[in-house]
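A favour, since you know our structure tokens better than I do. Would you make up a two-line entry for one protein for me to read? Write everything out right here, beneath this request.
=====
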Amino acid sequence: MRVSVCVRGDWLVVPCGDPSKSMRWLGLEALRRYARAHPSEVLSSQPSFVLKRCVDGGLLDVEDSISSVLSDNDFVKLRRSTEVGNVLRLYISLDGNSLTTADLVSLGKGHYKIKLVCVWAGVGAALIPERTRMLLALRINTLAKGYSGVSLETLQKMLSAFNASCLSWVPEKGTVGASGDLAPLAHLALGLMGEGQMWSPNTGWTDARTVLEGHGLTPISLKPKEGLALINGTQMMSSLGAEAVERAEAIARQADVIAALTLEVLRGTNKAFDNDIHAVRPHAGQILVAQRFRALLHSDIFPSAIAEEKPYDRVQDAYTLRCCPQVHGVANDTIAFVKKILNTELNSSTDNPLVFAERGITISGGNFHGEYPAKALDFLSIGVHELASISERRIERMCNPSLSDLPAFLVKEGGFNSGFMIAHCTAAALVSENKVLCHPASVDSLSTSAATEDHVSMGGWAARKALRVVEHVEQVLAIELLAACQALEFFRPLGTTAPLERVYELLRTVVRPWDKDRVMSSDIEVAHKLLLEEKVWKAVLPYMEQYKDSHRDHISSRTQESSPQSSNHTHYFLIRKRRENQWLVL
């Protein structure tokens, strides 16, 4: 077995004759080889370092065996503690108050471990390990608030299980979202008690006690109140909701980029994104989206040869082009609203009864009811779905020669090739499926527990279907990205703006142009992966910052040139300043 380790920019191949050795040995061996290649550098006799897997950025435990966390020819980065400073967090501290949706998703991916700052009956497929990690991390965070009556010993055992990636088998179905997510959380607790099934990178799925003992851990032994505390709460719906809202935020940003590219190949105008239009209807999301379009489309800063070649000869564009700030904008505002709700929920005590030690009392209440996250996640599904709905219509405009100057289905020899016809059908199918999934789960309620729990939130289903809706949105926009880049081929040798050319170049590193029919599912998958990794957004971000800086400098120079000399000049200067500097009140 061989592992490539990066130390200060140097890649060192470390043969691992005995892969059962620890990751600490691997790091020390890499440092030894680095020191031999750089004799002038002085290394500590007891170096401290961290190791991260290159493929996913996951933090590696130095006590794990090499074979348990790496494969042959894997790549790892080593950073010494003196180089890390405040740049890299090894742990996320859970105090019950400050966990964010972004933190929770990072914990799910295994990027960090956690530490404390202290003050059954489900069915269906099991949650994937990433989502079970999120669920366990969130449960620990809630219990860490100190209102659940759980001992520090039990909490520390849960924390140790998380840090060792010992994860219970948790079914995705079985919660009605009141009295919390009882069934899923019961399964989460079951594994921690040494019962049922667990998973770890070392063992895969096997009986829970074997997994715990294999990592030197002991099962939880429940003390008074702890049984209720471990199974009562909204953590299932909230953890799945955190993933949904983070992915929704990522695809909403990239939807603006993809739509701008589509507008370019459909020879649309950027007039609909003029600042004054949106200043008189100042919704935050609408203004933000219009700003992004102005930065991406033809301008003095980023000119487009396509836009300059043929003057715009229509009165206005179709709604799917000129109404992007309004439609995409409300999706952005919806995501912001849902994120605020969830960030509050992540740091709330949601079990029952709650223990108020400072008052010496225990009170039974209703914080377990999942109506807040359920309603928010239903709203998320409805809001983010529109990104796919409008995207599918833009795909249709590119594929339909009666609606554009492009070849039918974006292929030259239409009689021999179907081009993007079936890809558009796939987008239409996903959008249609989303219409059903957007029916709110939280409008339903069924009485349970002998009519004691006589109103429930259905938040678990709201969260699960929100994830499906977001995934469908990502896939539809992946198809639009493929179609827009294919349409751009018909304008060559003319180029578009610098940021949009960068998006085209990014896609062409993984998908070649469409010259004749081939299997397209793999193209859609790799385009979807680009969006999941936010590479489309990262590709244009430097250009958007450049546009912002250049626009600011342009305004500053024009302001200095327009120093007022009289009342008439002042009037002219103020109007111009209002229009160029985007000020509404002077």
Q: What stands out?
A: Residues 148 and 229 are 6 Å apart (CA to CA). Confidence is low (pLDDT under 50) at residues 82-89, 562-586. The chain has 22 helices and 14 strands. Residues 243-350+368-446+459-521 form a domain with the Fumarase C; Chain A, domain 2 fold (CATH 1.20.200.10).
